[in-house]
Amino acid sequence: MRCPLCTTNDTRVVDSRQAEEGRAIRRRRACPRCGHRFTTFERASAVVVIKRDGRRQPFDASKVRLGIEITLAGRPVAQDAVDDLIATIERAAYSSPGSMEADEIGSLVLEGLRDLDEVAYLRFASVYKEFQKAADFEKEVATLEALETPTD
Asked: Do residues 58 and 98 lie in contact, with contact meaning Cβ atoms separated by under 8 Å?
């Protein structure tokens, strides 16, 4: 890392710790040449989301949160459970190799909602899977019930 004061390339790390709720690493550095101390932050590189129509945009966890909160409106789900679901989706996004399909994110949201609240799951599925008629809901409910019924 280059010293911002004397531009020497050889600086040393004095202290490292997590920052921004684990999404970054804060490093305190010192320059052996001039003695200047400075702080750097290391963050994961931006993940690109590839939309269904081919557009690309940076991953934005706040959009995922907004969609989930709209879906869960009026439902008895703890905020901690919502935060855990969003954290799971963020980890999956940042562990992907640079890009992620929007459908993958939607599938992760569906999986999480299925475990949290079936009504919210159906709300989200109706938009995500583009339901056109009541029969689409019936098929999805039948799929949910089949997943709940233990097989011997």
From this structure: no
